[in-house]
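Is this the right way to post structure tokens for a design question? Let me know if I should format differently. Anyway, here goes:
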């Protein structure tokens, strides 16, 4: 079993990028007496109390049973309370396994604690199940076994949110203090990646469980397929956590961190990166800049992106800039032609005609791709495809260009979307959702 705290200290202190920081091993590590972490798709963090275990998050439907087995290698105490750090599927979807285990052992089922907005998230997931199936298959195309993109015995799509996910029993609004077996948990709400996020201060252990406020990647504050993120409040939450001067920091993704100064440095550095993105974006908005101008101007310094906990391997700063624009400026990007645009297919037909034909347009797209301008090549390939979606040569060109773009990108967000676009050229399928 690796010493996770020593591993994270080595990575942070020496700015190492050659070691994995987001691990899904299903292994349990005891981090301190009475505190353990199971490294899962989202981690299960457990605290021992006189009344049983308090666990933070129930991981995903696919990984919950393995995480439970690992937890039982450490403690056979009943799970008294599950705290949802937020309502994302990989944090709540495994809750039925915890309930099933309790019932199978004639134990009381765990109480579920969450921010009051978690229930609204569950309601939204049920209302938009098909949409969430599509976007998560596109983002995480390799994940199977969650029900994403699958059908049940009756031939109907499996719901995005499991029907038997454990609903919250105890909710709060801004902050709350609950006690389990003599252990106090100070719950704090803040908006960040989601609007229903909880971070918890456990004063007895000088520990914080943070959910997804830190993911050992650039903050997921710009996801192009998901609902609004809140970078200003995200940064404020990180600074509030640092102000507690914790000695142990327990994220839901990535390695735990030990040491007050080390934790403070990480939290304030991430907060500062978000704050600078917001300040620079809003300053340009106030100056009348368009989204295109801002997105091609505002950047994060390369030395920040080189830090082992800020690399843009999941989300990326450019996406965050666009989300800041959406937060403060709405959906229109400032280009009058795109306020009430012509249908994509009509515009594509005109452009293809100017080029000679859709095939000529696809050929020029290939030339641009070969010259290293994949950004321009994608525009032309998309127009060629919209103009002649049944032309095999056009489809092949588009698939190959988007596949090249996929391979050239670093962030999972971009990779998933470009891989889905390449698939559109390979198979008729659903051309819009890539399913």
């Amino acid at each position: 079993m690796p010493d996770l705290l020593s591993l994270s200290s080595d990575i942070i202190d020496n700015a190492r990028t050659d070691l994995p920081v987001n691990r899904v091993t299903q292994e349990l590590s005891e981090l301190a007496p009475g505190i353990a972490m199971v490294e899962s798709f989202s981690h299960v963090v457990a605290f021992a109390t006189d009344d049983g275990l308090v666990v933070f998050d129930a991981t995903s439907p696919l990984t919950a049973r393995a995480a439970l087995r690992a937890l039982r290698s450490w403690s056979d105490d009943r799970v008294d309370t599950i705290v949802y750090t937020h309502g994302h599927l990989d944090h709540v979807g495994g809750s039925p396994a915890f309930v099933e285990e309790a019932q199978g052992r004639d134990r009381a089922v765990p109480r579920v604690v969450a921010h009051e907005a978690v229930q609204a998230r569950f309601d939204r997931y049920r209302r938009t199940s098909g949409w969430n199936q599509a976007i998560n298959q596109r983002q995480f195309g390799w994940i199977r076994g969650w029900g994403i993109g699958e059908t049940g015995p009756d031939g109907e799509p499996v719901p995005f949110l499991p029907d038997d996910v454990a609903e919250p029993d105890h909710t709060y609004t801004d902050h709350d203090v609950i006690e389990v077996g003599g252990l106090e948990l100070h719950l704090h709400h803040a908006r960040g990646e989601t609007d229903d996020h909880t971070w918890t201060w456990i004063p007895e252990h000088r520990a914080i469980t943070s959910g997804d406020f830190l993911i050992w990647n650039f903050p997921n504050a710009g996801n192009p397929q998901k609902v609004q993120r809140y970078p200003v409040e995200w940064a404020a939450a990180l600074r509030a956590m640092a102000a507690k001067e914790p000695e142990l920091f327990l994220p839901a993704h990535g390695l735990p961190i030990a040491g007050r100064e080390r934790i403070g440095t990480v939290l304030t550095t991430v907060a500062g990166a978000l704050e600078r993105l917001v300040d620079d974006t809003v300053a340009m908005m106030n100056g009348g800049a368009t989204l295109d101008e801002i997105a091609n101007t505002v950047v994060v310094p390369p030395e920040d992106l080189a830090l082992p906990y800020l690399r843009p391997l999941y989300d990326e700063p450019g996406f965050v800039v666009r989300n800041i624009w959406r937060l403060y400026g709405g959906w229109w990007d400032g280009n009058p032609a795109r306020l009430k645009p012509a249908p994509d297919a009509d515009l594509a037909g005109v452009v293809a005609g100017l080029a000679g034909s859709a095939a000529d347009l696809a050929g020029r797209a290939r030339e641009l791709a070969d010259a290293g301008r994949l950004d321009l090549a994608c525009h032309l390939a998309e127009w060629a495809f919209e103009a002649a979606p049944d032309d095999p040569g056009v489809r092949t060109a588009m698939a190959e260009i988007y596949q090249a773009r996929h391979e050239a990108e670093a962030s999972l967000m971009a990779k998933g979307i470009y891989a889905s676009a390449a698939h559109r050229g390979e198979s008729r399928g659903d051309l819009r959702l890539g399913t």
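Format looks fine. Someone answered above. Worth noting: The radius of gyration is 23 Å. The domain at 4-269 is CATH 3.60.15.30 (Metallo-beta-lactamase; Chain A).
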